[in-house]
Write a structure and sequence with these properties.
Two copies of one chain form a homodimer.
Chain A: E1 2-6, H1 14-25, E2 30-35, H2 48-60, H3 66-82, H4 87-101, H5 108-133, E3 138-140, H6 143-146, H7 162-168, E4 176-180, E5 183-185, E6 191-193, H8 198-209, E7 214-219, E8 224-225, E9 237-238, E10 240-242, H9 243-251, H10 263-267, E11 272-276, E12 285-288, E13 300-313, H11 323-333, E14 347-353, H12 361-373, E15 377-390, H13 400-410, E16 417-420, E17 426-432, H14 436-448
Parallel strand pairs in A: 1-2, 1-7, 2-4, 3-4, 7-11, 10-12
Antiparallel strand pairs in A: 5-6, 8-9, 11-12, 13-14, 13-15, 15-17, 16-17
Helix pairs in contact in A: 2-3, 2-5, 3-4, 4-5, 7-8, 11-12, 13-14
Chain lengths: 453, 453
């Protein structure tokens, strides 16, 4: 049994829905279809979710939401018309949205969640109607009825553990289940949405709860690339990668799948297949628990800018039990989260995203580290990029580090920092931002040039 | 003005004292001579300090210390005889030691310190007597009279800040000052010794307090080697290195100078010259605040065994503010100090010395990390060696990492871990202990082969 999720661009028009239908019915194992709200049809188009947010904002400001309301309904109506569906379904969606607009607004965040969630919820009803019109048994299933219980956190709901057992019962339903992504219900029966990429999360939760063999995630790219195509021209596609590799890559700029969405599937060991709705015969990329390392040590290279390092040195630092912990506690008290802490004997650098700094915070941090830890030197260096070279195969591969650092040296890139954990699934290089693109290209050439299609 | 310190082997016999005298008088800037207790004359010989410890132990057990007492006095007497000194000085030392034996034993640690300190104290009197016999104005100066105030911690005294100003007054004394190393006096007037290499500490404190231009440390090697001579045959000597380089090297097995001893000199920016009493014309090694990098990026390579890594992985660890700090706090609660914390996105390794583990502690640590931090995986790997490649020149040298890691790869050494801070004064490689010697040799060949004498 497979759980299949389609993203907004896969559901943006009637023509796209026809593709979705063909994909689902071409494999009888595709039992559950998780749908997003209709996305953009062209680059200037508005997503239904964005229209709904504007609509909710107008309501909360006591302004007339009619224009946005109509725009939302118009999107559904256009799809219905394209697919020759009768008016009943559109009337149903219109009534639903109208009811939501009249809901209690005393908690604006809850009201916002109720409106946002309608994008997926109503789209699921529309998709189910279309599937039925095509002569297939298909049922819209509401997350409340299915038992998708979540915490009462607007825009950041977390699935509750008891939801999984209840979702398992969905296996007993007949026909194809069309399930709206992005939201669940609190114990009190209120709608709460997940964070960003919420439909991916829904699919992942359903795959876990229903013990699916595979979670298929249909999007609009053929596969995950081994490197950012804006840096390297026509890079190699990744056929298979592990959760850990995906996670390390997505950390530094890979955004095909939001990594938090994978957690429920990851915990249940269910593989995730990324495929293209517009090119379903392309093999796509499979995210698995373990894989054979047959394609060299490196599976992908990711990079991200906007880091800085706080360098702290103190003679005999190494002898002070608790120095590192106290340093991290100071940063934590400023609400800063950090990425890495490479260290020498008497120095330690803390790497963090520089967008976390509020004005004046840097000076305060330096002051506190100097006085509280009696540090000899505290220096903040800005505009660093982190480059992750990722691959489970690196673990058993003598010389990967040598190849990577030699490639960087040849490209004239100075390595500001290296951090390689004992996991050896990734190697991190810190370089200056101006060197980032050159560094990524050099590493790609070193590890992929020979195997590029 | 220079402070000159001589180690135990430089003062083990009359013949050695003659060398010391010639060295001191050959340079009128050598104003202060810090002396250790007489060391070994041959490899099976006993150091005076060790004899004194045995002597003190016997006293504390209410046993007869006569045999050890006589052995100590015999060492001084042999030197005096060799140098044709008259009996007065030996009688004086004998009386002093005899008085100490009768001191209060209610605090055994304080009694031990009082006896241990006599080795240096009485040797300073002997050396002063010999210098005077040679016709030079030389005065034994007692640390109490000079104001060398320390904390009342037996075997681990710390200099008090007010001592420095008082020691500056020594500049006004006429003649050569012969100053015993290894101990100072508490505010209550009791003797307390420094930790290991205590005479080096005394010299460093005097150099700071007296604002010396140079602190000369005479020992029994020509220079600091660039690598352990037990691993690499006839390695290159280091002419000049910075405090930071010395510190990083001494961390991993370089033991010519105990690094804590350098702190007072380091704080005052006073260079330290290491020289050989038995070959004073050899240039030795100079430890400086800054140096020109004229000899390639790497100044030395050190290695040390006996490390282990605690590998902790948790999916989405990176999003948890405070994860690293809480992990370090758990280790701290076991009294463990750690060396480095290389990390990936969802994993972190803590490198520490494995001799810190008490029996059963490992299991408890793993259990606590798993339950308190909800970690997915906790694995302890043993028998690791850390190799430090050290050099201030690495900072501006593109390609040092590439050269080092390529050399290791060519030697068939798998790099378990890399940690390079943004200071770039050192690069740390973690390897399996069985690979240590091969790795060090390979790195030495890479960075020193062309320049070896």
């Amino acid at each position: 049994m497979k759980v299949v999720k389609f993203g907004g661009s896969s559901l943006a028009s009637g023509k796209q829905l026809e593709k979705v239908f063909q994909i689902v019915v071409s494999d009888p194992e595709r039992k559950v279809v998780v749908v997003s709200a209709p996305g953009k049809r062209y680059s200037e188009d508005e997503k239904v979710t964005d229209l709904l947010i504007e609509c909710a904002d107008l309501c909360l400001q006591n302004k007339d939401p009619k224009e946005k309301f109509d725009a939302v309904i118009e999107r559904y109506a256009a799809i219905a018309e394209e697919l020759y569906l009768d008016d009943d379904i559109i009337n149903e969606l219109e009534e639903d949205l109208f009811r939501r607009l009249k809901a209690d607004k005393s908690d604006p965040d809850k009201f916002m969640d109720l409106l946002k969630a309608s994008g997926e919820d109503n789209n699921a009803k529309l998709v189910a109607a279309y599937f039925r019109k095509q002569g297939v048994e298909a049922h819209y299933v509401n997350p409340k009825e299915a038992g998708l219980l979540v915490t009462a956190e607007p825009g950041n709901a977390q699935v509750l553990p008891e939801a999984y057992d209840r979702l398992f019962e969905l296996r007993n339903r007949s026909g194809i289940i069309i399930f709206p992504g992005f939201f669940g219900y609190s114990a009190e029966g209120d709608v709460f949405t997940f964070s960003r990429s919420g439909s991916d999360i829904t699919g992942s939760i359903l795959a876990n709860g229903m013990k699916a063999e595979l979670y298929e995630n249909f999007t609009d790219v053929d596969a995950v690339y081994s490197v950012n195509p804006f840096i390297v021209n026509r890079p190699k596609e990744i056929k298979e990668l592990t959760y850990r590799e995906m996670r390390e890559l997505s950390y530094a700029g890979f955004t095909v799948l939001h990594d938090e969405a994978l957690v429920p599937a990851f915990r249940a060991g269910i593989p995730v297949q990324i495929k293209n709705t517009n090119n379903p015969s392309a093999p796509g990329t499979k995210i698995v628990y373990e894989r054979n390392n047959t394609n060299g040590p490196v599976v992908g290279i990711a990079s991200d800018e906007g880091f800085c390092s706080i360098y702290v040195s103190k003679y005999l630092m190494n002898r002070e039990v608790g120095f590192g912990r106290r340093l991290l506690a100071i940063l934590e008290s400023f609400g800063l989260s950090y990425e890495h802490t490479p260290s020498g004997i008497d120095d330690i650098s803390v790497i963090l995203r520089e967008n976390q700094f509020a004005p004046g915070m840097e000076e305060k941090i330096i002051e506190r580290i100097k006085t509280e830890l009696d540090a000899d030197e505290v220096v903040i260096e800005h505009s660093l990029a982190l480059i992750m070279v990722v691959g489970e195969g690196m673990r058993h591969n003598i010389g990967t580090t040598a190849r990577a650092s030699k490639a960087l040296a040849k490209a004239g890139v100075n390595i500001e920092m290296i951090n390689q954990g004992s996991s050896e699934v990734s190697m991190m290089f810190g370089v200056k931002e101006i060197d980032e693109k050159r560094a990524v290209q050099a590493l790609y050439d070193e590890f992929f040039a020979a195997v590029t299609v």
